[in-house]
Amino acid sequence: MPTKIERPRQLIVEGNDEARFFGALLRHLNVADLQIQNAEGNRNFGAFLKAVADMPDFDRVAWLGVVRDAEADPSAALASILDALSRAGLPRPARLDGPRDAVPQTDILILPDNVSPGMLETLCLRSVEADPALECVEGLFDCLRDRGLPVPRHLEKARLQAFLATRSNPARLLGEASDQGVWPWQSNALSIVRAFVLAPE
Q: Which of 25, 34, 83, 178 has the highest Cβ tally under 10 A?
């Protein structure tokens, strides 16, 4: 269930890693008017958004952002969020032909970039693509293939875990790494998330 509405901008994310990632980003950017709500799974967005919209203080909300992973199909991910917004009685984003004067103003971000398959892990790996340790990470999976050993099914998650293992103080989880400042927040790869939390349409 959502927590009490305390800020005029609400950001709905799908899990703990996303909540910690965006929390660390907001601290870096000194954003104080945005509250993160954790839906605890992309299958929960429909019920969670309805619960948020039904909260007594929801009339205080000026902007509502929803973030989820594209996974294999960005279009399907977007469609699922639009359906969840509709079922909660919330407006479509203005950039998707929704009303420009809607209250709250809504927006959707499908990670990693609104158009590509992938997830938050994909975006984080893009932000560190210049790090020489990534070559070693790719070497690990090349070694597995060369030896005929199985490569992890969720390769992006495995690549990210291998990258985190190269840090001087290895974090076990993406969210923990975010709190430790592993991701270069000014990276061009992260411009999409910076823009989303700083300047919603």
A: 178
Q: Is 71 left (phi over 0), alpha (psi -120 to 50) or beta?
A: left
Q: Which DSSP category does 118 fall into?
A: B
Tens digits of residue pLDDT in 75-132: 999 999 999 999 999 999 988 888 888 999 999 999 999 999 999 999 999 999 999 9
Please name the fold of domain 9-119+183-198.
Answer: Rossmann fold (3.40.50)
Cα–Cα nearest to 193, from 32, 28, 44: 28
Counting as low any pLDDT under 50, the low residues of the chain are 201
- Would the CA dihedral through 92, 95, 97, 98 be positive or negative? positive
Tokens 């279009």 -> residue: 75
Which two tokens mark 115? Answer: 């158009």
Within the chain, which residue ranges are assigned CATH 3.40.50? 9-119+183-198
CA proximity to 95, closest of 80, 78, 112? 78
Q: Name the packing angle between helices 191-198 and 16-29 (round to 10°).
A: 70
